[in-house]
Task: structure prediction
Amino acid sequence: METTVILKKGEGRTIKAGGAWIYDNEIDRIEGEYVPGDIIAVQDFDGYPMGKGFINPKSKIMIRMMTRDPEVIIDAEFLRDRVRAAWEYRKAVIDISSCRVIFGEADFLPGLVVDKYEDVLVVESLALGIDRMKPQILQYLTEAMSEDGIRIRAIFERSDAKIREKEGLRRRKGLIWMAKDWSDRYSADGEYSFDEGAFDPRLQIVENGVKYTVDVENGQKTGFFLDQKGNRMAMQSLIRRMKAAGETVRVLDCFTHTGSFALNCGLGGADSVLGLDISELAVSQATENAVLNGLSDRVTFQEADVLDLLPQLIERGEKYDVVILDPPAFTKTRDKIKQAMKGYREINIRGMKLTRHEGYFATCSCSHFMDYETFTTVIAQAARAAHVRLRQIEYRTQAPDHPILWSGDEASYYLKFYIFQVREER
Result:
């Protein structure tokens, strides 16, 4: 007999709107036996079938939906089809040399992220049920790529996010060689040993013509922020047009991380670019990337707390032709949104004040909870406080390999990116 979860009357609003999560307080009862991570059926309070998902009683998100079709069998063929669909989508929408090939719920494989850096895959698993399916998924993914002549030489795991502990999972980071070599030793309880073979976690990739050294072991997330690919190209193109018009272009790139926006501006022809980041490691990597691209004479980096340094630059009367703000998420929870709004407002005021009259200002938020409407409101408030007028050039989101799935909570829609011309009130 199939195990079935019955929802409380009036609950399940998120999945009814297209979302993928069912929280523990939405469940009335569970009929049948199960082991955490098992696939179970879901029914509304009146018996209406709502699909199937995997269950984990240790998590607040107790069920993550895999399908809305109650008749579907979630087996090897099902997983192979999901993986192939994700890969075919990337081939159609983006340069696949380095890209995100699986994006969790947006690819209908909840809790799983897989990034491709040339011939290396980096995997992050955040949910118990998908963790159990991970060996098969990675095997099917490497097989699909091999049919297109792409040989994946290594798989590295970055399942080291703290959120795994809420799923009752240990945090894991280490090297996995080819899926066919390790799937057989992946035990039913989720334990396996990492490969001890020689592997250099520092890889070189090329994006938008810019070369980067990516550290998949020690870098943030899976090693690099692939989601800004198109936005970085937009800035590179803007700089090229400014230079073609005969302008001198001086750029300030705040929260530069490994220098991606700064390097795109440098490649676009900027006369000088200063990248700021509080991380010594990030500044070291960014400086190395500038040398790698032959841009170290025009693109430099400084270790600094951006929030502290920008007021000093304003006090000195500094002005830049282009200012870029790419801060980390100021909030990862809904209950801290007011505090985050204040932080975004202050940093945008400072960025606008440092942009010359008729210069260009790019600003973004990568927080899912700082939604489009809230972020837009905050920018408008910052413009009034900075006594400038903004002319919107472009609004962008994340690159298409991070697809936005229109659903109940729109969890896959997180990156907001604006480019403005700044005009002083005259």
